[in-house]
Design a protein that fits this description.
Strand order of the largest sheet: 1-2
Structural class: mainly alpha
Strand content: under 5%
Distance between the termini: 84 Å
Number of helices: 27
Length: 562
């Protein structure tokens, strides 16, 4: 590879780059090539590490004291890691000026050029980065994550742990960020039947937009964190404005595709609310959405086509099926079962993402409730095995939504037939109780950022039906063996029906069996043998809590008699 030194800067020829419509503001500001080269060389000499978790996600805090490693490492070590690079990227140099730096003699400058080109958020730079994937020269070391309690303070600051990093590593990180967003999980070269960059770029090189390119920009705008810092909202709104340039119905399809990348509870007006997306989708009509579910969307975007790489059809389908009663015609209910089978066959052939059986079933049931209960009941056997009970919970939630109180005996019997899932929380029982017995919403702080969930009781007839359901669960003879996760969820709901909590949220979450829930529910006998006193104390407390729940029933269901 040809290298150059700043002595030859005057002879550099600008490299014309034509890119997509939606580019970063970096295109707007010309700069002196000599000043730019000086800045890159100075930054290369100043910083000591290059952390992909920062530059990939644009995570450069203005206050370095907010960073976790400050308790472990000297303050200068943190500052040098962030501020010089942040300053360099803020200059927003022209793409045509940055590309020649990929051939600089200093591997650190080449690495910084990769980072600066990636920060333009212009996918047209990717073909220029791919050749550097084979560059094996060492560059800045990469900081390693360190696990220790947040309150731990070492006796003295320690050297920051790092691992070696090559220019090729940096280039691969930049290109892989785009590839992964498009469902290409095997890097630039690919692997066997899994294609790499050549396949990716051949299908996208002439496009002005792709769903996965918006996904890259949204990930960087949100920093892939939740809650999202309030100062990122302008960046998020800028991504939304870019999406709004896409014509319908593709615009709404893209927004659905990115719905899972927009954290629940964050500032809604920065991107789109769930309700607003439903309203927008209603204007398009059921026929289009059925074509999307048939994996034939009205779009030429390769990210929206059915293939081994497709990752966006699944969140789109999830959104449509979740809101089936708003967006789909009831006459299509039975077709959803056939489409589900088509998805499964395509998935086995590597031409579609995996299936989501329970979502198709619950959507069909809600579209035709007169048949829905029987469809749901006949489907439980599909998920009667380990790791699938949460799907049964989704069937039960749908059944409660459709039939309510009339199916209480069936649902309570299902509830107690479930084993305790040792490795998951919320378990399937808790998931059911959370969904049907109360409402939840995020409470925002003074900056408009979500901080905690508020629980709200259901009102009117729905609230009375829930009380009957909860009372039936509590009075069932099997209640005396109910796991502590489910007891906790019952208390959270029952507390809403009292002026003063029966047991505080803090105490509810403090109760845990010896060795933790996973070990306890996996082998109670072994835990009891090792920790007999603690096990006895846990069970006694849980028994007292169950008694408290039983005695509370007449308080919130006066007509009820034990």
């Amino acid at each position: 590879m040809v290298r150059f030194n700043h002595v030859f800067v005057a002879s550099l020829v600008a490299w014309a780059v034509s890119g997509p419509l939606y580019t970063h503001a970096a295109e707007d500001k010309p700069s002196s090539r000599q000043q730019m080269l000086n800045a890159f060389e100075a930054t290369a000499a100043e910083i000591q590490t290059l952390d992909p978790s920062q530059w990939l996600y644009d995570r450069f805090p203005s206050n370095v004291r907010r960073l976790r490693p400050v308790v472990m490492f000297p303050q200068p070590a943190i500052a040098e890691r962030i501020q010089p690079l942040k300053k360099l990227l803020n200059e927003k140099y022209l793409i045509a000026e940055l590309i020649p730096l990929l051939e600089h003699e200093d591997p650190k400058v080449r690495s910084l050029a990769v980072v600066a080109l990636f920060a333009t958020e212009n996918p047209s730079v990717l073909p220029h980065l791919v050749p550097l994937a084979d560059d094996k020269e060492l560059t800045f070391p990469c900081p390693l994550p360190v696990a220790m309690p947040a309150t731990f303070l070492p006796p003295k600051p320690e050297p920051m742990p790092t691992k070696p990093q090559t220019v090729g590593d940096v280039a691969k990180q930049a290109v892989d960020f785009y590839l992964r967003k498009a469902g290409y999980g095997y890097g630039i070269t690919g692997s066997r039947n899994n294609p790499g960059f050549d396949h990716y770029w051949q299908r996208r090189k002439d496009r002005t937009w792709c769903t996965s390119w918006f996904a890259v920009r949204l990930a960087r705008a949100t920093q892939s964190t939740s809650p999202i810092p309030s100062h990122r909202m302008d960046r998020i709104r800028a991504v939304r404005r870019q999406i709004d340039e896409v014509p319908e119905p593709e615009r709404t399809i893209v927004l659905m595709a990115l719905a899972e990348d927009w954290p629940i509870g964050d500032v809604p007006d920065a991107f789109i609310t769930e309700a607003a997306l439903v309203d927008q989708a209603k204007q398009i009509g059921s026929a289009v959405w059925m074509d999307v579910l048939r994996r034939s969307p009205p779009s030429s975007d390769p990210d929206l086509q059915s293939s081994r790489q497709t990752r966006f059809l699944t969140p789109i389908a999830v959104f449509l099926l979740t809101h089936a009663t708003d967006l789909l015609d009831s006459k299509h209910a039975e077709e959803l079962f056939r489409i589900n089978e088509d998805w499964k066959q395509a998935a086995r052939a590597g031409a579609a993402p995996g299936s989501m059986d329970q979502r198709w079933i619950t959507a069909a049931a809600r579209l035709q409730p007169e048949k829905g209960v029987e469809w749901l009941k006949s489907s439980y056997k599909l998920f009667d095995r380990r790791f699938y009970y949460d799907r049964q919970a989704e069937l039960s939630i749908a059944m409660w939504d459709i039939a309510g109180r009339a199916q209480t005996p069936f649902l309570v019997n299902w509830f107690y037939s479930l084993p305790v899932e040792a490795s998951s929380y919320p378990n399937s029982r808790s998931k059911f109780l959370r969904a049907v017995t109360r409402e939840e919403k995020w409470l925002l702080d003074e900056h408009g950022e979500p901080r905690r969930i508020q629980h709200l009781p259901l009102q009117g007839a729905a609230g009375e039906d829930v009380k009957q359901l909860v009372a039936t669960i509590i009075r069932d003879p099997r209640f005396k063996e109910l796991d502590h996760f489910s007891v906790r969820e019952l208390f959270v709901t029952v507390n809403l029906w009292h002026d003063k909590p029966l047991i505080s949220i803090q105490h509810l979450y403090e109760l845990s069996p010896p060795l933790g829930a996973s070990s306890y529910y996996r082998d109670m006998q072994e835990v009891e043998e090792k920790y007999p006193k603690e096990t006895e104390q846990f069970r006694a407390t849980l028994s007292d809590w169950r008694t408290t729940l039983r005695r509370s029933v007449p308080d919130w269901l006066p007509q009820s008699v034990d």
